[in-house]
Amino acid sequence: MDLKSQIDLARLPRHIAIIMDGNGRWAKGKGMPRVFGHRKGVKSVREATEAAAELGVEYLTLYAFSTENWNRPVMEVTALMGLLVDTIKKEVKTLNENNIRLKTIGDISKLPEKSQKALQEAIAETRNNSRMTLVLALNYSAKWEILEASKKLANKVKKGEMDPAEIDEAAFSNALATQGMPDPELLIRTSGEARISNFLLWQIAYSELYFTKILWPDFRKGHLYEAILDFQKRERRFGKTSEQIAG
């Protein structure tokens, strides 16, 4: 029996988040520059997006560029930004054909103008699509996002629009970049690293974590199916006991 047919479609995670890691190591292993790995990783983005949409996942969030990534060599960052523009322009047609909407989270204003323009155009062109939402985390940091949400709520209190007592989990979630989206039930990280790397820290409080040694350029639909099947074997208790869940 193939992996896809084993998935219980009634128990799919509504939102899957992926830390796409290992592009540089994949390229290095082949004696190629790191940028070569990033280019090859584009196919993996396409595979993961298609697989998630075909199954019926509502949201797929990909950690594409963190605020810390600016510390990488200038040549690599420049190439990444160029690759981002080229990829988005090429993929808009495919996104529309598959009824997939594009969104971004992160401080997009710090990206090069060409990157911002390509993103804004793609978001506008896909805004009416409803099958799945593909979220790209670009120049994103969870600590940045939490600080921004705190400032937003503090300003509301300062203006008298909100009482401090009204700040609860729901209010804070609504101040985040992921406002209106369900929290990810499943977080996948490739390349064998087992850390979160400043990604969706508030939202993954109860996410199931799945770490695979597969380097991102080698990630295919079957690897996403494996992660979902592993997720479906787990008991999600949210602080309760197994007996409470069963009862």
Structure description:
This protein is an alpha/beta fold and 247 residues long. It has a single domain, classed as 3-Layer(aba) Sandwich (Undecaprenyl pyrophosphate synthetase), CATH 3.40.1180.10. Helices cover 45% and strands 15% of the residues. It contains nine helices and six strands. It has helices at residues 3-6, 23-29, 34-55, 74-97, 113-126, 142-158, 169-174, 221-233, 242-246, and strands at residues 15-19, 59-66, 100-105, 132-140, 186-189, 208-211. The protein has a six-stranded parallel beta sheet with strand order 3-4-2-1-5-6, with helices on both faces. β3, α5 and β4 (132-140) form a beta-alpha-beta unit. α4 runs parallel beside α5.
Low-pLDDT parts are: none
Shape-level CATH architecture = 3-Layer(aba) Sandwich
Q: Give the neighbour order of strands across the main sheet.
A: 3-4-2-1-5-6
Instruction: Give the termini separation.
Output: 32 Å
Question: What number of domains?
Answer: 1
Superfamily (CATH H level) name: Decaprenyl diphosphate synthase-like
Give the structural class: alpha/beta
Percent range for β-strand residues: 5-15%
Q: Look at the structure and give the mean pLDDT.
A: 94
Mind sketching the topology for me?
Layout: H1 3-6, E1 15-19, H2 23-29, H3 34-55, E2 59-66, H4 74-97, E3 100-105, H5 113-126, E4 132-140, H6 142-158, H7 169-174, E5 186-189, E6 208-211, H8 221-233, H9 242-246
Parallel strand pairs: 1-2, 1-5, 2-4, 3-4, 5-6
Helix pairs in contact: 2-3, 3-4, 4-5
